[in-house]
Amino acid sequence: MASKIKQVVLLAIYYISPIVASIIYWFEEPLDSNDILNNLIHRTGSIFGILAFIWMCFNILIQTKLKMTEENYSLNKILSFHTIMATIALILGSVHYPLVRLGREYSSFQIRSGSIGFMILIVLMALALIFMSNRLIKFEFIKKLRSFASGKKLKYDFNKFLHNMMVIGVSAIFIHAIVSNTSNQSTLMLGVYSFFFILTVTGWVYHKIIRRLRSNADPYIFRKAPWDTIISEKDSKPYKEWAENLIKHNPSLYPCLQCGTCAEVCPVSKVTNGEYNPRKNILAVRFGYKDLVLGEEDLVIWGCTSCNTCDEKCPQHIKLSEIFTSLRNESITLGKGPEYIRDQAKKIFEYGKAIPRQPAIEKRRTQLGLPKVIDPDVKEIQTLLKGLGIDKKIGIIKLEETKVITE
After folding, report:
1. Does residue 175 register a pLDDT over 90?
2. What whole-number distance in Å separates Cα of residue 369 and Cα of residue 22?
3. CA Rg value for the chain
4. Which of 103, 113, 217, 313 is most buried, by the most CB atoms less than 10 A from its CB?
């Protein structure tokens, strides 16, 4: 109940603040009685601009991981809300321009500052959709751009650049607002613009400083399972090219936020108290710790049961189960992986099923009145497995093939 109240309070602040600012503007802006229609159009455009400016300021604050926001909303809701409101703000900003220009003249500086800020935010929106979400992952050019960015080691620096440029864009909009006729004629409106801008910059600077202090100890401080741990950089030798190749073949991996949601919802993590940790595995992949990821440890990639819970809950829609499956295939190809995996595969090759038919099982089924199990077509299964080369990967080689190799 307390969380619901906090959610309502936060939403009320978000939506009521620009409304209050708009009311202040309405009474502070002088009304031209000679041209009421034009004046109303101008005021409507100005209010759109106020809404856009304040909501973009708030969107920057959302990115700074405010404790109250992080603890009361799921990351999926925060990201969706951020994207939707940023889009609405940009739409309002684009409508604002023609409405306020109708029948009025402005200084070139005011027009340029507003246009520069608006264009920065539009470009950032496009780049964020390409590099920081998986909404457009189906397009081939998105995959190529991510592969290129990963190869140039742009992941962290590029994300940091996008966040910094957002503040610059809002700063340009703020300059545009304070040199406007409204700010020149109303000290109160100048104070309104300054309040939201100073609040935003303060939150952004605070986040930058605190993030540097806490990043090594806890980069996802508000979102982690109680058993979650940070991966050690001494766990394995990094193979950067291997990591870049994985990004090329699994482009959904690029925008991982390391939020810890996958570790929190994973049933295997809960049962093993974090010994199996999908978040840690993904981080190891991003660092290029090939030996650690592809080794024979049971609870690295082999702990995944492909239940797809992490896929469903991941706020970035990363295909974790698909990534872990490809890594297990690579591990087997390299002759690694737990021995029981190869033993199970051999049983499937020999009997057509992981658990061979047993008299005790058949007897119990008869007692329970269950129908007789139909035997699988072992030859057909073996043909399929041979076609995939699995027989060789798990050590099942015909005697004739062994002789040829020996000779």
Report:
1. yes
2. 75
3. 29
4. 113
Verdict on whether the full-model pTM lies above 0.85 = no
CA 58/CA 85 separation, integer angstroms: 10
Give yes or no for a contact between 4 and 164, defined as CB atoms under 8 angstroms apart.
no
Map out the domains of the chain with their CATH numbers. 2-214 (1.20.120.1770), 240-333 (1.10.1060.10), 339-406 (no CATH)
Residues 6+ apart with CB under 8 A from 115: 97
End-to-end CA distance of the chain: 76
Alpha carbon distances (Å) from 204 to 38, 81, 131, 280: 38, 19, 21, 28
